[in-house]
Specification:
Length: 356
């Protein structure tokens, strides 16, 4: 009995020391990039089997008020919004309100070439439609309140970049169209649909459709860095990025999101796997993208990844299904990208937390 006790005590001590070493290694990685304790910073989390094993905040949430970031700070997540848009589309498909194989002309009859562009093309960035963020006239509407229909009209008549299904080219316009289709088929605003059917359902109580007007507790403010110092982020009306990049969240809430996906709380497993399937172009070439996630790998181990970038903020997350490891990082200055950092932390976590 005493031998068993000593063995268990030794195992607990070894695990504790290993976790401490991992913490130190992650700290070292982050501090090599986020060096200014009195400047904008970031928050980071590593979770395994649904629970955090590392979470820390670095730097300031508000430079004017001298307020520090904390692990509950609310960040704009940019294009990580696309995960929610994609799952919402699959939820509507499960409800029988649409099919991903449907042409978008079924919902937006006036859309040019809409008979040949499907919802699937929009989800996989293979539609060929013009990305509105690359249009010079974007500055004309960036601060205007736009309806989803007005946003679609803004880019729909632009020359296409390629025929549907011909190639993969990351595209924000496609997800704006998806948001409009969500509204048309559900009879609700995109904001309300996401809140009622996802945020409220799984307890994401600190997640929002972004707003600069509403009082949001623990809000992290966004910054740009100039040669003379930091400045407040450029103002954008969130109706412009819309379903392609207008959500806000926290580390804890994003872990709830990942856990809900793992437990199939929003979709049955068959339909949910559509989001995590690599699809093919017209020529049979496979792309490393599903619906709302990049599908890549770390040293041969499959990952699901996505980042985000919106004025003043950057985000990145990597999920490793085989080990149930989730790594997440948010930054409140677009001068500090967590993208490679989160990938490096994911690699480090895989090496240290992998189930033997």
């Amino acid at each position: 009995m005493r031998k068993i006790f000593l063995f268990c005590s030794t195992m607990v001590l070894a695990f504790s020391l290993n976790a401490q070493k991992l913490d130190q290694k992650i700290d070292s990685l982050i501090l090599s990039e986020f060096k200014e304790s009195d400047g904008p910073g970031g928050v980071f989390m590593v979770a395994q089997k649904g629970k955090p094993v590392y979470q820390k905040a670095f730097g300031m949430a508000n430079l004017e008020l001298d307020a520090k970031l904390n692990i509950n700070s609310v960040f704009q997540i940019g294009s990580m919004t696309k995960q929610f848009t994609a799952i919402a589309i699959l939820m509507l498909e499960e409800q029988g309100k649409l099919k991903v194989s449907d042409p978008i002309s079924k919902y937006i009859p006036s859309y040019p070439n809409g008979n040949n562009i499907t919802i699937h093309h929009l989800l996989t960035h293979t539609s060929g439609i013009k990305d509105f963020t690359k249009m010079k006239t974007i500055a004309d509407i960036a601060q205007k309140e736009m309806t989803p229909e007005e946003m679609v009209n803004f880019f729909k008549n632009e020359p296409v970049d390629f025929a549907p299904g011909e190639k993969f080219d990351y595209n924000n316009s496609g997800y704006v169209v998806l948001g409009y289709i969500i509204e048309l088929t559900s009879g609700e605003t995109y904001e309300d649909f996401i809140r009622k059917n996802i945020f409220d359902k799984i307890g994401m109580t600190n997640s929002y459709y972004a707003t600069d007007r509403k009082i949001i507790k623990n809000r992290a403010y966004g910054y740009h860095k100039k040669s003379y110092g930091y400045v407040n982020k450029t103002v954008i009306n969130f109706s412009v990025p819309f379903a392609s990049g207008s959500l806000m969240s926290t580390l804890d809430n994003m872990l709830k999101w990942q856990n809900a996906l793992n437990k199939n709380l929003l979709l049955n497993s068959k339909n949910e796997m559509k989001a995590f399937t690599k699809y093919k172009l017209n020529n049979g070439k496979e792309i490393e993208y599903g619906y709302g996630w990049h599908l890549k790998s770390i040293n041969g181990t499959a990952t699901r990844e996505h980042g985000g970038s919106v004025f003043g903020f950057k985000s990145m997350a990597v999920y490793i299904p085989s080990e149930d490891i989730y790594v997440l990082g948010f930054s409140n200055c677009d001068c500090n990208s967590p993208t490679q950092l989160v990938k490096d932390i994911a690699k480090l976590s895989l090496e240290n937390l992998k189930v033997k």
